[in-house]
């Protein structure tokens, strides 16, 4: 990236003028917008003989606001080469005038030795600067990129396949002037306003009934945040009595996180419910719908236990899936991934299986399959629950255990001939594959 600076000083004032003076400055920045594309040519031997000037083209790809494509000529681009060479070019595939760019074409060595054939203009000075392509179809490349007889006996060709990498750097320039003002824009506080709306109860037009307790809410907010509530409140199969939604299988004091300003009797009951073991029913649903954030449970109940956080996240994940709250679901998955532990991982795995959380499921399986964790996890009550509720997961767990076992065998030298420093007998690096 190059930078050209321009600085202009105003004429100095004469002795008869005001003693004040001023100056301005601007900076012109010229840089490249880079992008790359990988192009594989399978069935090279079948492409031979298609004729001089006939090509195989990659899909178009976008760099710097322009479309580009790679052109490979198996029998060469020009008749004078008599099909002795293959040709390789990069072409401007969209409308453009005087597009200036740098290019790099690489034929990849597929033996793993890293001896790639690279033609690059990046990182070196060019006598005439970047190349200019004047119109759609303009090309840059090499008519005699590689002699065919050498190519066909080289490590660049493997399983009748060539692999080509292309990098394009489109030159862009812009001028920056002095900034005469700066306004700090605060982060969005939309959730704060909706949260205050929930607390005030103003304009509430729907009620939740949970274990005999009533909570006010707003239909439009619920419908905007949850497609499940939207169908329930405004869909063609909406409930007849949309003024009150009855929530089953949730304890009233834990349906909603209550701020300290709410009636002390309910809040005291909320705390006592937590301390008496009702964590399995904790659903912090309305708070998230309105505030778009989870409350600080550590501050709320004074617990720093990871186990506490995991149990909360487990039940919130089930609620998020029930009401199609994708952001809440991802927040819970992230929290559970961070808190994977011996005594909770089995129940988390069961939950991931039940609610189709594929990434979370993979994290749990890998954790359990580790030799130092497997036996301890199998002795937990959660593992008994996993066997009863999701027996199919045990087959996947065995597959993970088997993969780790295979990796251990290879590392010890019983599979392929591998030395302790990770190299095989030919001194090539060996990178074990572990899913």
TrEMBL record:
Residues 1-34 are annotated as: Disordered. Residues 204-258 form the BTB domain. Pathway: Protein modification; protein ubiquitination. GO terms for biological process: cellular response to salt stress; protein ubiquitination. It comes from the Eukaryota. Residues 1-11 have a biased composition (Basic and acidic residues). It holds the Pfam family MATH_2. Residues 13-28 have a biased composition (Low complexity). SUPFAM superfamilies: POZ domain, TRAF domain-like. Residues 34-168 form the MATH domain. May act as a substrate-specific adapter of an E3 ubiquitin-protein ligase complex (CUL3-RBX1-BTB) which mediates the ubiquitination and subsequent proteasomal degradation of target proteins. Belongs to the Tdpoz family. This is BTB/POZ and MATH domain-containing protein 2-like isoform X2. It comes from Durio zibethinus. The gene is LOC111307897.
């Amino acid at each position: 990236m190059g930078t050209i600076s321009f600085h202009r000083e105003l004429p100095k004032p004469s002795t008869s003028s005001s003693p004040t003076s001023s100056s301005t400055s601007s900076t012109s920045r010229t840089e490249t917008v880079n992008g790359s594309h990988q192009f594989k040519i399978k069935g090279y031997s079948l492409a031979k003989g298609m004729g001089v000037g006939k090509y195989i083209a990659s899909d178009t790809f976008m760099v710097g606001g322009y479309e580009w494509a790679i052109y490979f000529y198996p029998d060469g681009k020009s008749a004078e080469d008599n099909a002795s060479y293959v040709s390789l070019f990069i072409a401007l595939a969209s409308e453009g005038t005087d597009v200036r760019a740098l290019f790099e074409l690489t034929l990849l060595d597929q033996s793993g030795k890293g001896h790639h054939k690279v033609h690059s203009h990046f990182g070196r000075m060019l006598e005439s600067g970047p190349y200019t392509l004047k119109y759609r179809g303009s090309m840059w490349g090499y008519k005699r990129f590689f002699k065919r007889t050498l190519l066909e006996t080289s490590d660049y060709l493997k399983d009748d396949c060539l692999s080509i990498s292309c990098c394009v750097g489109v030159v862009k320039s812009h001028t920056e002037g002095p900034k005469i003002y700066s306004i700090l824009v605060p982060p969005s506080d939309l959730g704060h306003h909706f949260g205050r709306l929930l607390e005030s109860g103003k304009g509430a037009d729907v009620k939740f009934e949970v274990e005999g307790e009533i909570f006010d809410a707003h239909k439009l907010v619920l419908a905007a945040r949850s497609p499940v509530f939207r169908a329930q409140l405004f869909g063609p199969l909406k409930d007849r009595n949309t003024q009150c939604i009855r929530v089953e299988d949730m304890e009233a004091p834990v349906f909603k996180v209550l701020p300290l300003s709410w009636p002390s009797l309910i809040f005291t009951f909320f705390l006592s419910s937590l301390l008496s073991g009702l964590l399995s029913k904790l659903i912090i649903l309305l708070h998230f719908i309105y505030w778009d954030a989870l409350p600080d449970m550590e501050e709320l109940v004074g617990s720093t236990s990871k186990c506490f956080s995991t149990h909360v996240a487990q039940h919130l994940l089930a609620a998020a899936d029930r009401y199609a709250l994708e952001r809440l679901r991802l927040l819970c998955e992230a929290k559970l991934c961070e808190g994977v532990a011996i005594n909770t991982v089995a129940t988390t795995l069961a939950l991931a299986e039940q609610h189709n959380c594929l990434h979370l499921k993979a994290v749990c399986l890998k954790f359990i399959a580790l030799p130092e964790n497997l036996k301890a996890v199998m002795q937990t009550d959660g593992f008994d629950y996993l066997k009863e509720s999701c027996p199919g997961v045990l087959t996947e767990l065995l597959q993970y255990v088997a993969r780790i076992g295979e990796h251990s065998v290879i590392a010890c030298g019983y599979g392929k001939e591998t030395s302790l420093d990770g190299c095989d007998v030919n001194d090539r690096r060996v990178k074990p594959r572990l899913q």
